[in-house]
Each structure stands twice: as C-alpha cells, then as structure tokens.
Design goal:
CATH superfamily of chain A: Beta-grasp domain
Number of helices of chain B: 30
CATH superfamily of the largest domain in chain B: Aldehyde ferredoxin oxidoreductase, N-terminal domain
CATH topology of chain A: Ubiquitin-like (UB roll)
Distance between the termini of chain A: 39 Å
CATH class of the largest domain in chain B: Alpha Beta
Shape of chain B: globular
Strand content of chain A: 25-35%
Largest sheet of chain A: 5 strands, mixed
Number of helices of chain A: 2
CATH architecture of the largest domain in chain B: 4-Layer Sandwich
Number of strands of chain B: 17
Radius of gyration of chain A: 12 Å
Order of helices and strands of chain A: EHEHEEE
Largest interface: A-B, 25 and 37 residues
Oligomer: heterodimer
Structural class of chain B: alpha+beta
CATH architecture of chain A: Roll
Distance between the termini of chain B: 51 Å
Strand order of the largest sheet of chain B: 1-9-8-13-10-11-12
Structural class of chain A: alpha+beta
Number of domains of chain A: 1
Number of strands of chain A: 5
C-alpha cells in the first residue's frame, strides 16, 4: 500500500524534501514506515523521543497500524511562545 | 543635556533578587522619588507584574484613560531576571492602562534594560503625569544620578524609535557603546496609532551594533509617547553574574546548568529555535490550518513556503552567532539580519539591520495575503522604527481589506486598491498609519474602533442600520476587549478559543496556547479538561512574566524526562528547575503549587481591574464568530469535507447531515456558538467566578484581595447572587 510521510522544519531540512512516498505491506505500522525513511535519509533526527508522529493530522504512536493513503507527519513538541 | 530636574542617590544593592525600591517619576510635577516597597509587598504581589498590577489598582480609577495624567506606566523585571547562569533572564514587562482596551495591559520584552535598572537599585519604574515638553529620563547607577532632561533633537534622520535610541545611546556613552548601557524608546507611529510599542535597545558586542526587542501588545508605547517621555536610558557597570545576590548561589548555578544542558541537548533535535528563531512555527501552523491568511479566513496557503524558516535563514539571517536577547541564554532564538536594503517606503534604498522576524510578524503579513519574505523584513523594520505593533497593524489592515472584499468599504472610502495580497497597498497603509493620514488614521485606532467607523459609513451609504452592519462586522473583526488577536487560527480548537477569549489583557497567546494539545494531540476531550488547562496554563505562563523570565526554554524545549510524567505537555521536569531557581534566589522553600498560587493572586487582581474598567464580564469574553468556526460560507466551502466530517461526528452516525451545504454551515455555526458558551460555564466554575465571570467573594478572600475597592465593585456589579452586602470585615 502507498502512504506519504510529510516532513517539516528540521526534518524537511535534513531530508531535503517535504514529502516522501512509501510502498508498504498491508498492515504495516508507523515504525516500519520510519525504518524505510531512515534507509533513504539516514540523517533524519529520529532518535531520543525528540519528535511526535501524527497520522492524518492526529497525534499517533509508533505501533499504529497504517491504512492505504495515510498521511504521516513528524512533529516537534510545540508549546506556543 | 541640561537636566530639567535631577536626583542624586546611592543605588540600593540587590538582595535575593530584589532591591525593594521603586523609582517614581511624575512628569507633570517634574519630580523624581525613590519609594521603598512596604514590608511583605513582594510576597503578596510578586515581581514586575505584581508591582504593575498593584500600582494600577491603587492609583487609577474607573475614569482613568490611557492618556490621563494618573495613568501609571510601569516597567519592571522580577526577582529572577538578571542572572546569566540561568537562560532567558532578561525579560521585563511594561504595564499600564491600554489605549486599545481601556484596562490593564502588560507586554513582555527582552533585553538588558530591566537587569540594568535593577543594578541601578530599582525593582520597578513607575511613571505618572504628562510632560509639557518631550523629555528623556537618564538613570545612571555609576554616577548615582537620575535626571529628567529635554529630549535632544537628532534631526529627521534619527526620529524613529530605533534610530533615535541609537543616537541617544551613542551620545550618552560618548560613542563607546557597551552592554552596560541600554534604553527604551517609542517612535512617531505611537503618536498616531493606539498600538504603539516600546522598543528595548541594547548593544550586542558580537554583531557590533545596537539590537532591539519590542513590547508589542496593547499600546504601551502610545502611553509612553502621550506622556511626553521619549526615551529612558539606564547604566550600570556592576557585574551581571550573581547580579541578584542570590541566597544560595550554588543552587542557582546548579539549576541554571541543568536547564542549559536540556536546551543544548534537545533544541537542535526539536524546534531548532537556536537556528531558526520562531519563524519555524510558520511551517507547522500552515500544515495544521492555523496560519492566518486573508484575515483568518483560511489557515493554509499554497504560497506559504515562500515565508518558511529556511528562506529567512538562507537569504537574510546572519548565521553562526549566539543570538540571545540577554546574557547566558543558550536558546538564543532572537534572530536577526544585518544587511537588508529597503525597497519601499520613505527610506527606500537604505541598508539597515532587522531584528527579526518573529513568527508573529511573518503571520501578520500572511494575514494580509502577502507571502513575500522581502516585504516581511521591511514591514518588520518599519514597524519597529515607527514604533508600531506588527500584530495589531497587520490584523487591522487585514480587517479593512476584508471590509473591501465584502463591500463594507467602497473605493471612495479607501482611495486605493486595498485588496488581499496587494503588497503596495499593504505598504501604503503601513506608512499612512504611522503618519496618521488617510485611511491610516482609522487603521491606527485598531479593529474595535475601525468597526464603528466602517459601520457608520456603510450604513449611511446603503440605508442599512448601524447596529445590523456592526453585527456583521463583529463576525470577522478579530478583536476581543479591544485588542487584536495574535496570529493563530482557533476555529478547530475550542480550548484555544477560550485561551483567547478569557485572556485578561485580550487575545494574546502568552496566557494560553492550547491549540496543539487540543486540536492535534486530542488531550482535552471534555469541557472539564479544557477548563483545567485554561486555569493552569495561564497561571504558570504569566508567572514567567512576573519574575523576569522567558518561558520558551520551558514551553518550547521538551525535557526528555517529561515523557515519563502524567502530563508531558506541562513539562514538569523543567518546571522543577524553575522552582529550584526561585527558591535558591530569594531564599524560599516554595512548591510549584505555591508559585501557581502567587500567580493566581495576580490574575485575580487583574480580573478585578477588568471588572472595574468594564471589561470583566461574560460579555467581555465573547470572541468573534470567525474565531469559533467558519464565519462565512466561503470558509466552510474551503474545507467542506473536513467540516462535514466534523458535523457528522457531532450528530452521531444515526442522524443524516442536512442536504444543502448552506444548512450544514448554519448548523455548524449554531453548534460552535453553543460550545463556546458551555466552555464559559466550565471555565468560570474552575476559576471561582460566578456565571457572569465575576470572581466570587470567597475566591478573592482566599487570596487576600477583598479590600474596600474590591468589595465596592462586587456590590456595584450586583452579580453576586442574592442581596448580601459584601464587607471586607474591617
């Protein structure tokens, strides 16, 4: 199935792209999507629980099972200045 | 500079973060006095906000306007400001009765001014009266003198807030600028507009130039200008390190080192504020439909990438410089460009430095439908030089643009093509506002007053009623209590609708910013949870303003240990460092709850000032329809699929959506209005108010605030339920 990862800010700068499309097996989880992205963009700062994952604009978690056409976003913690 | 009046004094040393002295200036009488804070004052009314609120409460009345001689202009840091061992300790507030809201406003600002004021011996500066000529106040802790002088004239080339301040600092320092001299100034725009700002100027030895930060909200610069006080200069050569003379220096150093470690380890992997500043927010706000576009009609735009952070980083920001607005801050988010050539306006061709932009300024420009980074830089610089708030300027201009779009303003009202996205029009309106000419004269009054002007013209031209026209304008005139919204779209976050509506000063996000934990994280699903957040976050966020600290190292750098706590968004592990820092500085043993209680007392006092000034009731907390949802059908249409799904969720799976899109829109509006009223009820209960948003007697009594004035107000408002006279018991 096809899903998209949208990258913003620091992640976009590190990847050099705002969107990466992935082909995953049916029933794949977020963590597998991130593993594929890391294989393409090893410089992405995805360690140390320093980011959040949103699926279709709602905060999610690494074990969420993805659906076809899902939109995954990587987000920092935003508290508002 | 020959003084009009002067005072020789010995600066009071700082002890445990305080000097217990207030410098009082009466510009009408030309008097300078040093007042000692009463015993116990600082424990009851903490820090800069505490001083400002108590002085305004005691010395002004319901009849006091922003331009009344008795209005007090207060500038004060707090016990924790002025410590390079701890990040973000250069903050202070400017507090006064606002020209926009008619009630208390405090706007916080960074730089060296408040730390130097403290080293000169003063916790706070309070200015009353109106000068009969433009004056400058010079506080020289080295010479032990305080002088009020006629404001020097540096010519038209140095008439703006930035240029005048620089000329003044150069003259005062004999041409050798150092970090030990700083100034606050206002600009000519503050003489024309109600949203004038106070600029805080300080010398940056790394950039080898003077930099500026701004107290932007609520028109504090307009008050300063109206008082005839052109600028204030402070000087002290005393060491900043341990400048607070803390009770436990080792404790201060330990807490500061721990917070600096969190920042250095985490920021570069999170928001990366140290490289991009707050411009980084633009990208995330656009992603989640929160970036104001065309006067908050839309939250996202295909051209938004033109003003994303990497554009400013590559094209404008001078890089690889530690950009803290005060010594010792390793978050260093105060970005700047050192060589920007202006292409528009009266100073086109001039090469200048721009301190910014912050996210709010970028979004003020997108709110006008403009996505041009060069214009953002120029808008930023001109607003600072004129002394205008970039937010209120952009929001009022956007409101007028939408009045043109919807036919409330005719071409003859404007005189030029004031449409969204027209850079030349936006630029012209900015300069006209600063000069107080043409439509700029109306724009400078802010959205609240502009609505009345537009309604009268439209009604007269079309034979409509003024009241009905005003009701339409109220849907999209983005102000509450007279203050323009800051730059976040709240349509899809009920919690943040309250964050703006209940904000005591008006809709500025420094009291609450709950959009992400509500809209994206979905952590506030019930009214009770929203109400809890709308009580807790304002108390801790305004505590930072009270004690002289920046809140960004807490709220925008997530401590990794927070993940293991019950409420990660509150970032308790970092807050614990702030509690340690407070206790080590002042010599206390307070808990976080004690600090929240200190802050709640100030919030209640501010609420009572609002009640007195006619801005404290439930009606005062009402927000425009556009802040609740799609005010007009075109906004619904822009995200019809999203709104239909939202509506279906509200109705449940068994109820069918109305067939006509117009009916769906109407139903959404009805539900959104009801939800906001339900939120009001929940929040007032949580805060100890009655259903009309007036604090209950017992709420005030609990915090020692039921003085004669408060009791009289509660009796006057007649909203305390059954007839029972309120007594202070004295």
């Amino acid at each position: 199935m096809r899903v998209s990862i949208h990258l913003h800010g620091l992640h976009r700068a590190a990847a050099g792209a705002g969107q990466i499309d992935l082909n995953l097996r049916e029933g794949a989880r977020v963590t597998e999507a991130l593993a594929q992205v890391m294989a393409v963009c090893p410089n992405l700062p995805l360690a140390d629980e320093s980011f959040l994952v949103a699926v279709n604009d709602r905060v999610s978690h690494l074990e969420e099972v993805l659906q076809p056409e899902d939109d995954i976003s990587l987000l920092p913690f935003l508290g508002g200045g | 500079m020959k003084p009009l009046t002067s005072l020789t004094y010995s600066p009071q040393p700082v002890t445990g973060g305080y000097t217990d002295r207030v410098l009082e200036i009466d510009l009408s009488r030309k008097t300078i006095a040093v007042a000692e804070a009463p015993a116990g004052f600082k424990d009851m009314y903490i820090g800069g906000r505490g001083y400002a609120l108590k002085l305004i409460w005691d010395r002004t009345t319901r009849e006091t306007g922003y331009d009344s001689p008795e209005n007090v202009l207060v500038m004060a840091g707090g016990p924790l400001g002025n410590e390079p061992w701890f990040p973000g300790s250069g903050k202070f507030i400017v507090g006064t009765i606002s020209p926009l809201t008619g009630t208390f406003i405090d706007s916080n600002i960074g730089g060296h001014f408040a730390p130097l004021l403290k080293l000169c011996g003063f916790d706070a500066l309070a200015v009353t009266g109106l000068a009969d000529q433009e004056v400058v106040l010079v506080i020289d802790g080295e010479a032990g003198t305080i002088e009020l002088t006629a404001a020097p004239d540096f010519g038209d080339e140095a008439a703006g807030a930035l240029s005048y301040g620089e000329a003044l600092l150069r003259e005062f320092s004999g041409g050798e600028l150092t970090e030990n001299i700083a100034a606050v100034t206002n600009g000519p725009g503050a003489g024309s507009a109600r949203f004038g700002i106070v600029n805080s100027l300080f010398y940056d030895p790394r950039r080898k130039r003077i930099r500026a930060k701004q107290a932007g909200r609520g028109g504090t610069g307009t008050v300063m200008r109206r008082k005839g006080l052109r600028a204030i200069v402070v000087r002290s050569n005393l060491s900043r390190l341990k400048g607070n003379n803390p009770v436990d220096p080792a404790g201060v150093k330990k807490a500061g080192a721990a917070l600096k470690k969190v920042i250095s380890q985490c920021d570069s992997k999170q928001l990366n504020l140290s490289s991009w500043g707050t411009t980084v927010l633009t990208e995330y706000m656009n992603k989640f439909h929160i970036l104001p576009v065309d006067n908050y009609q839309y939250g996202q735009h295909p051209d938004a990438a033109q003003v994303f952070p990497d554009v400013f980083l590559k094209k404008y920001f001078s890089q690889n410089l530690p950009d803290g607005c005060y010594l010792g801050c390793n978050l260093a988010c105060s970005k700047a460009a050192d060589n920007v050539v202006l292409t528009r306006g009266p100073q086109a061709g001039k090469k200048t430095a721009v301190d910014g932009p912050e996210y709010e300024t970028v979004a003020a420009v997108t709110c006008m439908g403009v996505f041009d980074p060069q214009f953002v830089m120029e808008y930023n610089w001109y607003c600072d030089e004129y002394g205008l708030d970039t937010i209120s300027m952009g929001v009022t201009a956007s409101f007028l643009m939408e009045c043109v779009q919807r036919g409330f303003l005719a071409p003859e009202d404007v005189g030029f093509d004031l449409s969204f996205g027209n850079i030349e029009a936006a630029d012209r309106l900015l300069h006209d506002t600063a000069r107080g000419q043409g439509l700029g004269r109306i724009c400078g009054q802010g959205v609240h007053r502009a609505k009345a002007w537009v309604a009268e013209r439209h009604a007269a031209r079309n034979g409509a009623s003024v009241a009905e026209t005003l009701a339409e304008l109220n849907k999209f005139g983005m102000e509450v209590k007279g203050l323009e919204f800051s730059m976040y779209i709240t349509k899809e976050s009920l919690a943040q609708q309250g964050g703006y509506g209940f904000a005591l000063k008006g809709p500025q996000h420094d009291e609450a910013w709950l959009i992400f934990i509500d809209q994206v994280h979905k952590e506030l699903p019930t009214f009770e949870k929203k109400a809890d957040a709308l009580k807790w976050f304002p108390l801790i966020r305004t505590w930072f303003n009270a004690v002289g600290l920046c809140k960004l190292p807490w709220i925008d750098v997530r401590n990794p240990e927070a993940a293991q706590t019950s409420d990660p968004a509150k970032n308790f592990p970092t807050l614990a460092l702030y509690v340690d820092y407070f206790n080590a500085t002042v010599g206390a043993a307070k808990s976080l709850q004690d600090l929240l209680d200190d802050s709640e007392r100030l919030a209640l006092l501010q609420k009572m000032i609002n009640v007195r000034q006619g801005k404290g009731t439930r009606a005062s907390d009402l927000i425009p329809l556009r802040a609740m949802g799609p005010a007009f059908f075109n906004e619904y249409q822009a995200r019809a699929e999203y709104y239909d799904a939202w509506l279906q969720e509200q109705l449940g799976p068994d109820r069918k959506l109305p067939d006509a899109p117009e009916d769906r829109h109407r139903l959404i509006v009805k539900l959104r209005r009801q939800a906001y009223q339900d939120l009001c009820d929940a929040v007032y209960r949580a805060k100890g108010f009655n259903s009309e948003a007036i604090p209950l007697m017992e709420t005030l009594a609990k915090f020692g605030l039921l003085d004669d004035q408060a009791a009289e107000l509660l009796n006057l408002t007649d909203l305390q339920g059954p007839k029972e006279a309120v007594s202070t018991g004295s």
